[in-house]
Amino acid sequence: EGVFRFSYSPEFITWVLKQPGQPWEWILVLKKDNGLVGFITALPIEIRVRGKQATMAGIDFLCLEKKQRKKGMAPMLITEMARRVNQKGIGQAIYTVGAKITAPVSSARYYHRQLNIRRLVDFGFSTVPNGTSLEQYESMHALRLCGLRMFRRTTKEDKETIQKLFSRCSSSWLLERRFCLEEIEHLFCGDGPLVSLISECGGSFASFYLVPIAAIDKSEGIVCAYVYYYCCDGGSEARILLMERVLSEAKAVGADVVNCLDTMDSAAFLDRLLFIPGDGMLRYYLFNWKTAPVPKEKVFVSFF
């Protein structure tokens, strides 16, 4: 019963649903009285688990209108999706859930880096610590602007460089999504809403997207930037520099806060860059695939 609500734009949803390989029969809607009350999508993606690779259904965007919950609607949507996935000859799936339903393959926590302190405080997302003024708190969270010229926005010519970078870093992960060039071009190098940055040397890459957040008791909201995929074949300082560039770019495009899971290489920069742990957890589940638990820092899978 949270007070915050995601406000994905129609353009964002359309772009996500036009990913390469998206079967239209894997986009399910539940209607009642000519109104949309339920939704779920799936996408065939390549997942590597401890060195073994398989095509799995990546489940995303499962949602139900509040009045329709606890009526068996969610299991009905999931069952129908499973039937359609099986028709394609795919027997495994990967998905994430905030709540703990069974033993997950991995668990991660959301961390937050505040950018627009005043707006976050006014919105009720943040509070100023006791004994600290608002101005002092803003000064503490001022961004360090250095090394910005080392990075630029990606273009379609960068897709092979990104794929090679992912491959070089692949040995670091135990649970990993593998991307083909067509997927990389659509997600990271196209004209979509994802913001993707690459270093001039091709050794660092990061991406994020914006989601407006509304409160059920307020007329105005905030804008959250969610870190999506990132990769760096350098050391800790290179990772910090990469994420500093992400913070700077996120603020430039209007984000009030940057949200990041403590997966991948996040341990290198979360504390140094003043990310604070949040209350939200994300748990990773594999369907019809048995494996030992995967440490969160070994996870290279992200969902919208």
N-to-C SSE series?
A: EHEEEHEEHHEHEHEEEHEEE
Helix content: 10-25%
The CATH class of the largest domain is Alpha Beta
* CATH topology-level fold name of the largest domain: Aminopeptidase
What's the total count of β strands? 14
Give a verbal description of the structure.
It contains 7 helices and 14 strands. The chain is an alpha+beta fold. It folds into 2 domains: 92 residues, Gcn5-related N-acetyltransferase (GNAT) (Aminopeptidase); 195 residues, Gcn5-related N-acetyltransferase (GNAT) (Aminopeptidase, 3-Layer(aba) Sandwich), CATH 3.40.630.30. Strands 1, 2, 3, 4, 5, 6, 7, 8, 9, 10, 11, 12, 13 and 14 form a 14-stranded mixed sheet that branches. It starts with a strand and ends with a strand. The relative contact order is 0.20.
List the helices and strands and how they pair.
Blueprint: E1 4-6, H1 10-17, E2 27-32, E3 35-49, E4 52-64, H2 73-87, E5 93-97, E6 106-114, H3 117-123, H4 134-140, E7 151-153, H5 159-169, E8 175-178, H6 181-188, E9 195-199, E10 204-215, E11 222-232, H7 236-252, E12 257-261, E13 276-287, E14 299-300
Parallel strand pairs: 4-5, 8-14, 11-12
Antiparallel strand pairs: 1-10, 2-3, 3-4, 3-8, 5-13, 6-12, 6-13, 7-9, 9-10, 10-11
Helix pairs in contact: 5-6
Organism: Metchnikovella dogieli
Catalytic activity: N-terminal glycyl-[protein] + tetradecanoyl-CoA = N-tetradecanoylglycyl-[protein] + CoA + H(+)
Family: Belongs to the NMT family.
